[in-house]
Design goal:
- The longest helix has 23 residues.
- It is globular, with a radius of gyration of 17 Å.
- The protein has one domain.
- With 168 residues, it is an alpha+beta fold.
- Helices cover 39% and strands 12% of the residues.
- This is ParH-like protein.
Length: 168
Protein backbone atom coordinates (compact mmCIF):
# COMPACT_ATOMS: atom_id res chain seq x y z
CA UNK A 1 0.00 0.00 0.00
CA UNK A 2 2.80 2.44 0.92
CA UNK A 3 4.74 1.78 -2.29
CA UNK A 4 1.67 2.14 -4.49
CA UNK A 5 0.48 5.36 -2.82
CA UNK A 6 4.02 6.78 -2.83
CA UNK A 7 4.50 6.00 -6.52
CA UNK A 8 1.19 7.67 -7.43
CA UNK A 9 1.98 10.74 -5.31
CA UNK A 10 5.45 11.08 -6.85
CA UNK A 11 4.15 10.83 -10.42
CA UNK A 12 1.64 13.67 -10.09
CA UNK A 13 2.14 17.31 -10.94
CA UNK A 14 1.04 19.50 -8.03
CA UNK A 15 0.17 23.17 -8.50
CA UNK A 16 2.48 25.62 -6.73
CA UNK A 17 1.41 27.10 -4.49
CA UNK A 18 -0.81 24.14 -3.79
CA UNK A 19 -4.54 24.50 -4.26
CA UNK A 20 -6.80 21.45 -3.98
CA UNK A 21 -9.31 22.71 -6.54
CA UNK A 22 -6.57 23.39 -9.12
CA UNK A 23 -5.17 19.93 -8.40
CA UNK A 24 -8.58 18.33 -8.98
CA UNK A 25 -8.94 20.28 -12.25
CA UNK A 26 -5.59 18.79 -13.31
CA UNK A 27 -6.83 15.35 -12.26
CA UNK A 28 -10.00 15.78 -14.33
CA UNK A 29 -7.95 16.77 -17.37
CA UNK A 30 -5.63 13.82 -16.85
CA UNK A 31 -8.58 11.41 -16.53
CA UNK A 32 -10.40 12.92 -19.52
CA UNK A 33 -13.65 13.45 -17.61
CA UNK A 34 -14.99 16.31 -15.52
CA UNK A 35 -14.72 16.30 -11.74
CA UNK A 36 -17.08 18.80 -10.11
CA UNK A 37 -16.62 19.92 -6.51
CA UNK A 38 -19.86 20.63 -4.64
CA UNK A 39 -20.54 21.81 -1.10
CA UNK A 40 -23.44 19.72 0.24
CA UNK A 41 -25.15 19.65 3.62
CA UNK A 42 -24.29 16.14 4.78
CA UNK A 43 -25.80 14.49 7.86
CA UNK A 44 -23.71 14.99 11.01
CA UNK A 45 -23.69 11.23 11.51
CA UNK A 46 -22.49 10.55 7.97
CA UNK A 47 -19.26 11.06 6.06
CA UNK A 48 -17.67 14.49 5.55
CA UNK A 49 -17.23 13.84 1.85
CA UNK A 50 -18.65 11.71 -0.93
CA UNK A 51 -17.62 10.62 -4.38
CA UNK A 52 -20.49 10.36 -6.86
CA UNK A 53 -19.69 8.72 -10.18
CA UNK A 54 -21.84 8.97 -13.30
CA UNK A 55 -21.22 7.70 -16.82
CA UNK A 56 -19.83 11.08 -17.89
CA UNK A 57 -18.50 12.84 -14.80
CA UNK A 58 -17.45 12.54 -11.19
CA UNK A 59 -18.65 14.71 -8.31
CA UNK A 60 -16.75 15.29 -5.10
CA UNK A 61 -19.07 16.51 -2.39
CA UNK A 62 -17.93 17.93 0.91
CA UNK A 63 -19.52 19.39 4.00
CA UNK A 64 -19.24 23.20 3.77
CA UNK A 65 -19.16 23.80 7.54
CA UNK A 66 -15.56 22.89 8.25
CA UNK A 67 -12.10 24.44 8.34
CA UNK A 68 -10.08 25.17 5.23
CA UNK A 69 -7.57 22.47 6.16
CA UNK A 70 -10.28 19.83 6.72
CA UNK A 71 -11.99 20.78 3.44
CA UNK A 72 -8.71 20.33 1.61
CA UNK A 73 -8.18 16.93 3.20
CA UNK A 74 -11.70 15.83 2.25
CA UNK A 75 -11.08 16.89 -1.37
CA UNK A 76 -7.72 15.10 -1.46
CA UNK A 77 -9.20 11.97 0.13
CA UNK A 78 -12.00 11.73 -2.47
CA UNK A 79 -9.54 12.54 -5.29
CA UNK A 80 -7.30 9.76 -3.94
CA UNK A 81 -10.14 7.27 -4.44
CA UNK A 82 -10.19 8.32 -8.12
CA UNK A 83 -6.40 8.13 -8.45
CA UNK A 84 -6.39 4.67 -6.90
CA UNK A 85 -9.17 3.40 -9.18
CA UNK A 86 -11.55 2.75 -6.31
CA UNK A 87 -14.37 4.27 -8.38
CA UNK A 88 -14.05 1.31 -10.75
CA UNK A 89 -13.85 -1.36 -8.05
CA UNK A 90 -16.78 -3.56 -7.17
CA UNK A 91 -18.22 -2.09 -3.98
CA UNK A 92 -21.71 -1.69 -2.59
CA UNK A 93 -23.47 1.58 -3.20
CA UNK A 94 -24.24 3.79 -0.23
CA UNK A 95 -27.93 4.57 0.19
CA UNK A 96 -28.25 8.32 0.61
CA UNK A 97 -31.22 10.61 0.79
CA UNK A 98 -32.09 12.01 -2.64
CA UNK A 99 -31.83 15.50 -1.14
CA UNK A 100 -28.02 15.14 -1.04
CA UNK A 101 -27.70 14.42 -4.74
CA UNK A 102 -31.10 15.67 -5.89
CA UNK A 103 -29.71 17.74 -8.77
CA UNK A 104 -28.40 14.53 -10.39
CA UNK A 105 -30.75 12.20 -12.19
CA UNK A 106 -30.99 8.79 -10.47
CA UNK A 107 -30.58 7.25 -13.93
CA UNK A 108 -27.19 8.96 -14.35
CA UNK A 109 -25.68 8.07 -10.99
CA UNK A 110 -23.63 4.87 -11.26
CA UNK A 111 -22.29 4.92 -7.76
CA UNK A 112 -22.34 7.04 -4.64
CA UNK A 113 -19.37 6.25 -2.48
CA UNK A 114 -18.69 7.43 1.00
CA UNK A 115 -16.72 6.01 3.87
CA UNK A 116 -19.47 3.48 4.58
CA UNK A 117 -19.32 1.96 1.07
CA UNK A 118 -15.61 1.37 0.65
CA UNK A 119 -13.94 -1.62 2.23
CA UNK A 120 -11.63 -0.59 5.07
CA UNK A 121 -8.41 -1.19 3.06
CA UNK A 122 -9.64 1.29 0.40
CA UNK A 123 -10.25 3.90 3.09
CA UNK A 124 -6.79 3.44 4.57
CA UNK A 125 -5.21 3.63 1.11
CA UNK A 126 -7.12 6.82 0.24
CA UNK A 127 -6.18 8.39 3.60
CA UNK A 128 -2.54 7.50 3.02
CA UNK A 129 -2.45 8.94 -0.51
CA UNK A 130 -4.27 12.12 0.58
CA UNK A 131 -1.72 12.57 3.40
CA UNK A 132 1.24 11.94 1.07
CA UNK A 133 -0.11 14.48 -1.42
CA UNK A 134 -0.57 17.08 1.32
CA UNK A 135 2.92 16.43 2.69
CA UNK A 136 4.44 16.79 -0.78
CA UNK A 137 2.44 19.98 -1.38
CA UNK A 138 3.71 21.46 1.90
CA UNK A 139 7.29 20.53 1.01
CA UNK A 140 6.94 22.07 -2.46
CA UNK A 141 5.31 25.22 -1.09
CA UNK A 142 8.09 25.61 1.48
CA UNK A 143 10.55 25.90 -1.42
CA UNK A 144 8.62 28.87 -2.88
CA UNK A 145 9.67 32.46 -2.20
CA UNK A 146 8.16 33.91 0.98
CA UNK A 147 4.75 35.63 0.73
CA UNK A 148 4.57 39.35 0.12
CA UNK A 149 4.75 41.64 3.17
CA UNK A 150 1.45 41.70 5.01
CA UNK A 151 0.50 38.24 3.74
CA UNK A 152 0.30 35.24 5.98
CA UNK A 153 1.60 31.92 4.67
CA UNK A 154 -0.46 29.95 7.22
CA UNK A 155 -3.74 31.73 6.43
CA UNK A 156 -5.11 29.01 4.12
CA UNK A 157 -4.43 26.38 6.77
CA UNK A 158 -6.57 28.05 9.40
CA UNK A 159 -9.22 29.52 7.11
CA UNK A 160 -8.07 33.11 7.54
CA UNK A 161 -8.00 35.71 4.81
CA UNK A 162 -4.47 36.80 3.94
CA UNK A 163 -3.67 40.48 3.82
CA UNK A 164 -4.35 43.45 6.05
CA UNK A 165 -7.27 43.15 8.42
CA UNK A 166 -9.58 46.11 8.83
CA UNK A 167 -10.92 46.99 12.25
CA UNK A 168 -14.56 47.78 12.03
Amino acid sequence: MWRRAGRIADELTLPAPFDAERFIAYLAERRGRPVTILPVELPHTGPCGLLVTTDRADYIMYTPHTTTLHREHILLHEAAHLLLGHDRASVHDTPLPRTLIGHLSPHLVRRVLGRTAYPEPFEREAELLASLLRHRALRNDAALPPPTPGGCAAAPLVGAVAGPQHAG
